[in-house]
Amino acid sequence: MFYSKEILTHKKGEFGIIWLAATLGSRSSLRKLSKKEVNSVNLVKACDYVTTPPEPLALRLISNLMIGITRIYNQQYHFYYTDVNGVWHSLQRALIKIHRESIDMISPQARYDTITLNDDPFFEIELNIPIRDIMVKNRYNFRPFYKPLVLTNLFEL
Q1: Which end of the chain, C or N, has fewer beta carbons within 10 A?
Q2: What is the three-class DSSP state of 21?
Q3: Domain extents in the chain
Q4: Backbone dihedral angles phi then psi of residue 146, each to the nearest 5 degrees
């Protein structure tokens, strides 16, 4: 079956870009298409055209266009993902920068009366609680093992 070559060579036609994406081959050569060209393709219109063409198209052309549509979709998704990821990382950096700036004190010196306790004659730090009462009683014995320190004569050994 034959088809009109104007489908692929039309100035405003997106099928030329889709066909190039299909026939260029691997992913590395797909990069030859610019971001502007890839993003200019309207995939909804292209899919509608391939599924219901106004004139009969060759099966080989339809299969190439379908592969090209999937490759263009993959590239559009990749461009969108990298853009969103870049925006997200720049927002994270901005938030970290704002958070770091808000940690610093507005005035780095404090008044003496705000950080000094008044003298209290009844204040005691010592706790008069025996250590045995603090320890939990269980099957293990938590007594320290003390060994007396004995100095021996090195020549006797």
Answers
A1: C
A2: helix
A3: 6-103
A4: -105, 130
